[in-house]
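Whether sequence alone determines local backbone shape is best considered at the level of individual chains. When preparing material for the folding task, we compiled for one chain both its residues and its backbone structure tokens. The sequence in question and its structure tokens are set out directly beneath this paragraph.
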Amino acid sequence: MSEAQKQNEEKQDVGYYFNFKEVLTYFFRKKDPTRPSNTSIKMMHGVNKISMIMFLICVIVIIVRYIIRS
């Protein structure tokens, strides 16, 4: 890894951590005919989607409880 790449990794701004583009494209992407498709992969993606939705709901609940109690 070059020195420039190391400096770029260290200087990532706050917006980098709040970039939800990949999460949104994961939920709303078209079917890719070149990707392998079997039952295990479909189940894995289903569980991933459920866990992301549960995580986002829990974060919202925690934020609402914090706002209400303060």
